[in-house]
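Continuing the batch. This is chain 6 of the set; chains 1 through 5 are on the previous pages. Same settings as before, nothing changed between runs. Recording input and output for traceability.
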Amino acid sequence: MENIFRGVESITIRTGGANDQNNIYVIEGDNSRAIIDPGYKDDLAKTIESQINQLHKSKPIKYILITDWYEEHWSGAQSVKEITNGIIISSQHDHGKINNDSNGQLVTKILRGGETIDLGSRKLQTINTPGHTPGSSCYLLQNEGVLFSGDCILPNTSTAIDPTEGGDMKDYLDSLRRIQMLKVDLILSFHGHPISLATERLENLIKIREDRDQQILDILQIKPTSLGGIWENIYGKRDLTGYLLEASKKQIEAHIIKLETEKEVSRLINDQGSGEDHSPIYQIINNNG
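Output for chain 6:
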């Protein structure tokens, strides 16, 4: 357990992945504590729950907050509730899938965005940040500039947007711009290390996605092509396999859906597709009349 910020502890789980760690945060107020994203596996349960129990005994953990519907964020929530009798909280859009995947009514309080979690002298404000999932949420320590970003903002990589699992690229960029309007000095992500240069990181993440949009438009400006053709232009020379290969394809799809929504690209009418999968062909829309 590590002290990250005044009254904020992190229980770190080493993963060996791109960000090398998952972070379970515990925030202390005058009256109570909140825990964010208590996701952990059985082999770590004894150690983690011992630390949680120790914190709870010194000041009660009243709230158990979940930032999105993926199991790595909530797999230990029921056990934490049994230790603390805390209230498990998620967003309106993600709670149904969490309850379904957990085979029970895990989430008992639903937030719609803008609510505050009162810890006594400290308040966590709920920020709706859809994109990674439809109900992805961040929590802002009011008047302290500390944002608990879940998977919305990562320190080393871009957040994966998977349209087949509810991800939406347009919503994601809107969420990043919404966060830009807040006073955020420190970002504490579910994955990886603290992000102290919050403004720069937000600008960089937005630019990465805007540049990819433009890259796709430039490819389609030359000639209409399929998702596979766009992928080949962007990633074809990289030796991607496994998860990274599949993730790269889904990112292209997410960008195309965004550009379709924004009337930048469209599918060719009556086109039967190309290649073995007969995937649709996309063209740039000429908005100059």
